[in-house]
Design a protein that fits this description.
Elements lengths: L3 E6 L2 H18 L3 H22 L2 E10 L2 E10 L7 H4 L13 H8 L2 E7 L3 E9 L1
Antiparallel strand pairs: 1-2, 2-3, 3-5, 4-5
Helix pairs in contact: 1-2, 2-4
């Protein structure tokens, strides 16, 4: 069983590969079908944000186990323009890209742990964990 995985996001093909790998990795780690699907959805949303706002970045997956519980840590990072106001970006229906503005807030709701760190001009890093 793999314990970690890293995928460079640079185009639609790599985004699709990241989503498929996240699903497979989650199932290998022992997450349920629903939890694996939630992880894949969040991976898709965050990787799409890389393409839309930064152009290039990476997705990392790490298998976790704590007191018999299985989980997956997802780290998505880029060196793009960053997010000036994280609180505003996390608000329901806020969008700078002409979308419904449900991506980041929806991603947070699907995960058990979700944090964003960002510096304007230096990039963004999201760390999220899904437990079984």
């Amino acid at each position: 069983m793999r314990t970690s995985l890293r995928i460079i996001i640079r185009d639609e093909h790599s985004l699709t590969a990241a989503v498929l790998e996240a699903t497979s990795f989650a199932k290998e780690t022992g997450l349920s079908r629903v939890a694996a699907q939630q992880l894949a959805t969040v991976t898709s949303e965050l990787a799409r944000n890389i393409l839309k706002y930064a152009g290039r970045g990476q997705v990392e997956l790490e298998a976790l186990e704590h007191r018999g519980r299985k989980g997956v840590r997802l780290i998505v990072s880029d060196s793009g323009p960053g997010i000036e106001d994280i609180e505003q970006a996390m608000a329901e229906h806020y969008s700078t890209g002409g979308t419904l503005g449900l991506g980041l807030s929806g991603a947070k709701r699907m995960m058990d742990h979700f944090t964003i760190t960002s510096q304007p001009g230096q990039g963004t890093r999201v760390e999220a964990v899904k437990w079984q």
